[in-house]
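Researcher: Last one for today. Full complex below.
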Amino acid sequence: MTTVTDHSPSPAAQPFTGDSRSIYRLVLDVRRGEIPAHASAPAIAHRTLAGLLDERSRRLLPSAADSVFAREPLSAGHGRPTVPFLPKARLLGPEEQRTAVECFARALAAGELTSGPAVTEFEQALAEFLGLPHAVATSSGTDALIIALRAVGVGPDDEVIMPANSFAATENAVFACGAVPVLVDVDPERHTLEPALVEAAITPRTRAVLPVHLYGRLADAAGVHRVAREHGLRVVEDACQAIGVTGVGQYSDATVLSFNPYKNFGLTGKAGAVLTSDGELHACMESLAYHGFAPGEKNVKADVWGLNAKIDNSTATVAMGLLPGLTLNNYRRAFLAHRYIDALADLGAVRQLSLPAFTDDHAWHLFPVRATAGEAARDRLRAHLHSAGVETDIYYPVLTHHQRTPLREKLFAGVSLPCTEELNTTVFHLPLHNGLSVTEQDRVIEAVRDAVHTTVC
Ligand SMILES: Cc1ncc(COP(=O)(O)O)c(C=O)c1O
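Model: Here's the assembly. Have a good evening.
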């Protein structure tokens, strides 16, 4: 992680390390009354951040603009929303696109497209970023989850305790090992596994616990870890949405990340990684990720089988070019999240919209809000926002135990998760991405305020 001298406005501030806790402090400092009247908050944010980032990261700051935030104007007409939820053409900013093209061209010219030196370089950089000794960079977060679960010993008919409110990849990785997901309810504020309920769900068949840091907020990882250790279980963290969060990787056997283009650290295609502090697990994961080959040996197998799931060298080259911009992007998201919370806080008082708390354990991958009056109220709010040109989304509209799949009756009949189910019918997401401009966000804020005041909830 980027570590530089602290130049942030607060004299009491601690060194800026680029993880969620230091970004949280920086956002609060910048947003506190230390912003001179003549300057806009984004401009101050830009100057402050420029002083904190190291040289490589600074290169990914917008060069001509005076703001750290995108300058995207509101798009008008032609049936397009004024503020799209996640515009594909802006997944990478202009500087990032230039960097990605240069990096890919280098890998292409060298002919190092699948294997090559950038893979190891990227793994080392990731390990340093998370403060863990070992990383295996993979072709996706999904593959990394399968590899991690297999490596900690999950196999046919084992049970893995996990939440029901995640991307399908989480449960699919369990199924890919021949194991069975055991679904447990979540904490209403964090939306993540409740350790006491994890403990209550343990059976003699339980092999591992799989917490998900949903929307970028850290699950009670320490609590889950304590329960797992007491019962001799392994922990694999699904941190696919939570890169950069303080504490990720500290309370598990293996930590899984995703770098698909929609993530905080999104690349030019699918990619992921699994990290661990356990040398034996690392060797096992390396072999599982590449045909069961012995580490460092060409076409010599040490294991019965393995996947073809290592990251491509071309993607790793792009990753090395973009990694210095991760802190900047996480800062952008945290700053915008704080701005939403500030501007919409009073709507909670009329008991219609419940906002997330601004906390230091969050990567702000998504910005979830809850229509406290229920599902119909949520639908009316979303419809109103839609007609105002603001696109919203519901991530994971169908919970694991409600998916209409052949095994549903056998595995999940009778499963009841009151909190998860209540959140599932009331939560929706406002636009929040690396390239969201302040102008766009102002339009969202205005539309949400209008929707809440004119919608009969
Ligand atoms: C919570 C969660 N788990 C797993 C994944 C799978 O990652 P990938 O898309 O890289 O396979 C994702 C990303 O889509 C995710 O959000």
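The mean pLDDT is 90. The two ends are 45 Å apart (CA to CA).
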